[in-house]
Amino acid sequence: MDLIGHLWLGLQTSASLANLFYCFIGVFLGTAIGVLPGLGPTATIAMLLPVTFVLPPVTALIMLAGIYYGSQYGGSTTSILVNLPGEAASVVTTLDGYQMARKGRAGAALAAAAIGSFFAGTVATLLIAAFGPPVANMALRFGPAEYFSLMVMGLAASIVLAQGSLLHAIGMVVLGLLLGLIGTDVTSGIQRYTFGIYELADGIGFVTVAMGMFGLGEIIRNLEDEEQRSMIVSKITRLWPTKEDWRRMTPSILRGTVIGSILGILPGSGSILGSFAAYSIEKKVSKYGSQFGKGMIEGVAAPESANNAGAQTSFIPMLTLGIPSNPVSALMVGAMIIHGIQPGPSVISEQPALFWGVVASMWIGNLMLIILNLPLIGMWVRLIMIPYQYLYPGILVFCAIGVFSLKNAQFDIYLMGLFGVLGYVFSKLGCEAAPMLLAFILGPLMEEYLRRAMLLSRGNPWVFLQRPISATLLVIAVLALCSVLIPSFSKTREEAFVEGAG
Amino acid sequence: MGTAFRMGPAYFPTILGGLLFVIGTISVMRAFITVGDPIGRFAMRGLVLVTGSIFLFGFLVRGLGVALALPVLVVVSAYASTKFLWGPTFIMAVGLTVFCVLVFLEGLGVPLPVLGPWLGG
After folding, report:
1. Using a CB-CB distance cutoff of 8 angstroms, which residues of chain B are in contact with residue A190?
2. Over the stretch B79-88, which tens digit does the pLDDT of each residue have?
């Protein structure tokens, strides 16, 4: 069969000694930053991007992807043991995970999270392998109008899935699009929004924005309430779940995997929304629903499976369409471009070893992760104990040198500082940064496709509605935005996030 | 500006700018009508010292070199924490500087001086 042949090629690629090594480095670092509260995958990948320039493209992507799904494993460890989410997607795991730990069942909670994540990771890997090629084939027939509408839909979805005010999310998207246009216009060669600053002629680097808003902004936010970071780590006893645990967590893992896989493909959220949704659904479906929050194993297994499934399926739009759906995959698109690979639907057919190698590496990475996270859990516990005040200056150092090394420009260091301030202020005002970052990378692409589509249609804007695929995508975008205005839906949306915050 | 058929460089930005203006206006007006959550205290110490340390690093790194600009970055930013202690911060500054010089400057060839021209390096 074709699929097996492709996966075999992928396994051969990813099982080379160098790729295995960097896959391990990726998932190891991923677990580490997942365990450490206040350091997320976006900032880490942004910091490490310059380091991957010396690697071959497959190896670089394998490592970067490993950081992302690895962080989903590590995040649960901190949530369960110290009641602090190590990662945004592990927020809901604190609710039942920490309660389990307080009852002396930390081991079972950790095992449920790791086993659930492994199962979800395996399923998600197969989903990418199965759906990647057909989606890419369809996308090969896309014209500029379809691409433009696809991006509109993506941005609409990221607005709906953003936390907080809808209006603010729309504003952030528009601002992101505008920031993306800074620099020299590709078609006319005219400089836009550069104010005569020479360094802005090439535009603002995506890594600079990501490091500023996610790296610096996050550090400043964490310094707000240092006192609350008390570290009392629960003791881990027996790791292996009991028969009763297995019986109860198996259906939750299955449900979490399905929910996470579907929501992961949606733009903007990646793994975060999946874990929230899986938790709320589990609470409704489970017969122990009323006891959620008191240490139910379902409340750990479902969201942890969901966030891992979502972290991996969120690579589908990036690998098949070349369109990033969240800041992490946007950074990987950037990495591909730097390595001279034009992201898009043709990557699968033209660079089969790259696509299948990355897909197969995800499964190998998951295998490494379950070993890293269960037998070696003691090592990560010690990492949690590192106080934050010894951590963040190090993060700043890597950000500063990393951002400089991209273009060897001091200007980028200043720019990163500026985006750090912006990131903090935005978070204070309840404006989420993720939709802005997505819009930032899509901005120039959208303009390009809009211009081409209008040129082909001789200035007729109806072209977007006359082409069936394009029209469908736009209708979905409008429906998604309108759905927020329906009272019952917007209430669920708010509740889902409140539950995580509480 | 151009037309919808042949868009000039200003076409798309003008649309976006207009949109952002409308959103901003609505947002400001809404703020007068509805009651929102208070923004809360700004972490001024963190904000000033963290961004300050980054700007300072950018300003000093070419002139003084990594060997001095990096410790400055570490100490100034670490001072933002209420749990700041001189001893561990000093050790951390030395450790990170040695690590960065070895990995980034020697290993990855980032073109920054260890000791800058201001010190005759």
Report:
1. 9
2. 888 888 888 8
